[in-house]
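Troubleshooting entry. The earlier prediction with 4'-deoxy-4'-aminopyridoxal-5'-phosphate gave an output that would not parse, so I re-checked the input for stray whitespace and re-submitted. Clean input:
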Amino acid sequence: MAELSPALKQATPVLAARGEGIYLYDEQDRRYLDFTAGIGVTSTGHCHPRVVEAAQRQVGTLIHGQYTTVMHRPLLELTERLGEVLPTGLDRLFYVNSGSEAVEAAVRLARQATGRQNIVALQGGFHGRTMGAGALTSSGTKVRAGIGPMMPGVVFTPFPEPYRHRCSEAEAVRFALAEFDQLLVTVSAPRDTAAIIVEPVLGEGGYLPAPPEFLTGLRERADRHGILLIVDEVQTGVGRTGRFWGHDHAGLRPDILITAKGLASGFPISAIAAPEQLMSQAWPGSQGGTYGGNAVAAAAAIATLDVVRDEKLVENAAEQGQRLRDGLRGVAAQHPVIGDVRGLGLMLANEFTAPDGTPDAATAARAHAAAAERGLLLLTCGPHGNVVRMIPPLIVSADQVDEAVGLWGEAVAAAV
Ligand code: PMP
């Protein structure tokens, strides 16, 4: 009998039969509060009626309008709609299917446009599992060990980590920017450096928001040295952080923006956006893919953008994110093992730390499992696995946030 690969790691022992709103139901119809959103994907909740309707309509009209063979209306319409929410000037789009593929597309474009080879990535960052995107990933050695050699031309620079280094945010930013400056004079000269890629909130690496001064410091250095700034909004985009894009918190303009996950509420579609003058550096035929910009996924993405706008989900993410953060801080205040509660919008982390200051993955794992037993689905992250993260659908209500905080409090109490 065939079985799934044993290398697949399943976070919770649930067999999902159906989803509705922020809930998942198993085959016995037990209800779970889904605070994982399928790793930040089901932005409008599971099976939002408007997304279902748009996808069903498209399935009956045209499923696969292969975009290097023929063009189709949903992709043109999605491009127009994204134009309304993308940063000014980033008005040329190229579509693929996953975050990893979009990251690879961004790297190819940066190398083509600059004629330079090196890509600087942040230590602790996650950009995917393909060999190119994986080469930029350092959220934990489990995604790299035994797999190399990876794509060459990648150099890492530290991400500001005030909690880990027990310093102020300003000190962490100063240190990280100084290390980047040092990298440019020791390892990767600007003339060899095509781009720096950064997540507005370090995601898989531990849910660490990038301080605005860090991002503006990178922007300023990129401008000074002719290096492109690639902002990976795969997890932080489409309202997740309480602004439409995560980098909006820093008020800067990326050269290349990457979006995926929450864009289509669960259908696989991703994109890179760049200014015309930059995207035109990709020569004809160097971008493409059999399934990229799928018509059903594009229709679902348009419906998702409609729902995000009409139901004011960006505002809801900010409001409920604040409520959730306050609730989590309340739980942490009762349990010193939670050393830090942090995040932006509905992308929040609880970091478990032992009294001697070392990461406490064992208690985090017990709390994570105890939450699932109580009907609250969560994920862990961080290189040590000691961070329990919460990333509910953007439609979450105040009552659901309160219910989740209550269950989390019980779970932590049971785990310590
Ligand atoms: N970039 C970021 C910031 C991500 O969080 C992820 C997925 N967790 C990826 C890229 C890779 O996306 P995918 O799994 O769709 O390839």
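This one parsed fine. The chain has two domains: 16-44+312-415, 51-310.
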